[in-house]
Amino acid sequence: MKIHLFYSFLSKNSFLLPLAIIGLTIVMLSLTLLPAETFAHNDLWTYDKIGHLLLFGSWTYVLGLYHDIRWKTPTNLWVICLIGIGFGLMVEVLQHLLPLNRHGDWADLATDILGCLLAIWALKKTIPNK
């Protein structure tokens, strides 16, 4: 019941979803593409994989909610998942290519994918049947 209240709230306040997507995108790109020295002495950085899981999962979840609320056509959750995975892949490639003292990591990409898959599971629980 609480999930439907959450969905209903976001349906009535759908302007929040693009703001959340933009905000999460800025945070994700900042955390993943700033030079490594920026975070070298931060204990939070030791939780890298959890951060990837939560950030990419949250981003994919909000994107799926936005699509379902904004467009009244059925949302293909696997396309939403692939967009999230593509974003994660793009970040890892950029880390490898840009001179940021960063490197792309297969384990990070695997964690991004897991976050996207968990987001799809959560979306299936959140989006009401139409």
From TrEMBL:
The keyword Transmembrane helix applies. Keywords: Membrane, Transmembrane, Transmembrane helix. Signal peptide: none annotated. Residues 38-123 form the VanZ-like domain. InterPro entries: VanZ-like. The chain crosses the membrane at residues 50-69, 76-94, 106-123. The keyword Amino-acid biosynthesis does not apply. It holds the Pfam family VanZ. This is VanZ-like domain-containing protein.
